Amino acid sequence: MTEVRNALQAIEDLTFKDSLPSGLNLLLGASGCGKTIFCEQFAYETLESGGKVLWVTTEELPSRLRESMKRFGWNVEKYEKDGKFTILDAVSPARLGTSEKDGLGMINLDPTGMLIVLSEQLRAAPNGEAQDKIRPKIILIIDSISRLLLSCDYRTVIDFVSCLNSRMEHFGVVGLATLSEGAHDEKALNAVSFSCSGTIRFRIRDSGETRKRDLRLETLRGRNHDDRWKNYSITSNGLDLEL
Q1: What's the confidence (pLDDT) of residue 230?
Q2: Which residue from 116, 136, 137, 236 has the highest number of Cβ atoms inside 10 Å of its Cβ?
Q3: What DSSP element (H or E) covers 39?
Q4: Which domain range does residue 181 map to?
Q5: How many whole angstroms from its chain centre is CA 210?
Q6: pLDDT tens column, 88-98
Q7: How many domains does the chain divide into?
Q8: Pairwise CA distance, residues 31 & 25, whole Å
Q9: Is 134 in contact with 19 (CB distance < 8 Å)?
Q10: Cα–Cα distance measured from residue 243 to residue 232, given in angstroms and rounded to the nearest whole number
């Protein structure tokens, strides 16, 4: 058993030298299990390998996202200046009534309007043939779908996820979207998961006086993958996964 501190490498190992499928890949688990940290790590490694990242934040202000990444040594300031890391801020308008002016874009917490904005971004993305098999050239992250479900009409959110997933598949763009397991009923969880290209499930277990964290690639459309539970820990370097 070895420890892997590189999220892209871990996915490559778990998919037998392949990658996540195009479309949205759902990160499903309880609040605090490390879903957002996984997204941050995956995003930074994509940037370091020459890719671009589009991040839609629906829960944390852009400044909090930058601070969180910086704590792990993932400073994205230079990538924002180069236009390789773009934050679409859907939090400031809802919570502050104005833009925080820290993001490079601002969108409303509205699935229909969000789909229009993201579709324009996808059209400018490299097509599937231009994508590197292992290292994606561009990724889209939505953190989180839970906020949309709690703030917007349920059916509108499901339609948004389904349409966005199809368009991402068409343009060959890989995406990650987080969803808090304890905040919604099974019907909502199943509907979102069904509308995505893949599901990565996270869990926390009590083991005596300690807590164990595991994840598994539950479903990945069109991919052979290891679907066994893998232990991971959250360290000052991010997620360390035992393979």
Answers
A1: 94
A2: 136
A3: helix 35-48
A4: 21-213
A5: 27
A6: 998 887 666 66
A7: 1
A8: 18
A9: yes
A10: 9
